[in-house]
Amino acid sequence: MNELNRPVTEVAAGILLDVEGRYLLGQRPEGKPYAGYWEVPGGKIESGESVFAALKRELQEELGIDIESSEELVVLEHDYPHAYVRLHVSIIREWSGVPKGCEGQLLSWQLLGDAMPTVEPLLPAAWPMLEKLRLLKV
Ligand SMILES: Nc1nc2c([nH]c(=O)n2[C@H]2C[C@H](O)[C@@H](COP(=O)(O)OP(=O)(O)OP(=O)(O)O)O2)c(=O)[nH]1
Predict the structure, then answer these.
(1) Residuewise pLDDT in 10s, the chain (138 residues)
(2) Ligand 1 mean position to 44 CA, how many Å?
(3) How far, in Å, from the CA of 14 to the mean position of ligand 1?
(4) Which is deepest, 28, 69, 105, 122, by most CB within 10 Å?
């Protein structure tokens, strides 16, 4: 619970960063809240699961890749009408496989140097993590 007495949904989000300075966004599939919005891949952390284990599982399910390591970027919270979420955001530089939209979702590689993503709309809570990513000058 948080100070608003709402349960907190813990979420792991992974920013895949390639050697050309690009990161990956995916479009939320039909049937989920905010369907059609673009997001950083990831999903809910299951009870007893570590952030890394959740990321590994979600990116395997959503993108068909196997991540090898991750670095924590930021933890941020967002109060949506459907849920209060705490997002554990990590950067992933090492993975095997080629990301595909395993749940039928569209994917889009974005240039880190660009001020705005070329796809829209983005989930509201995706903006602060992308801002943090740019400040890092990775
Ligand atoms: N993956 C991801 N989720 C985000 C981002 N920003 C943001 O607010 N969220 C929120 C949306 C959802 O309320 C929650 C993630 O839940 P989800 O619905 O994608 O998770 P899931 O795949 O485990 O869902 P489910 O179908 O099992 O219920 O986090 C983001 O950039 N990436």
Answers:
(1) 787 789 999 999 999 999 999 999 999 999 988 999 999 999 999 999 999 999 999 999 999 999 999 999 999 999 999 899 999 999 999 999 999 999 999 999 999 989 899 999 999 999 999 999 988 865
(2) 6
(3) 11
(4) 105
24 in contact with ligand 1, CB cutoff 6 A: no
Residue 54 tokens read as: 């959740």
User: What burial class does residue 117 get, using C-beta atoms within 10 Å of its C-beta: 0-12 exposed, 13-18 middle, 19+ buried?
Assistant: middle
ipTM for the complex? 0.90
Q: Is the CB of 126 under 6 A from ligand 1?
A: yes
Domains, in order of start, for the chain: 8-136 (3.90.79.10)
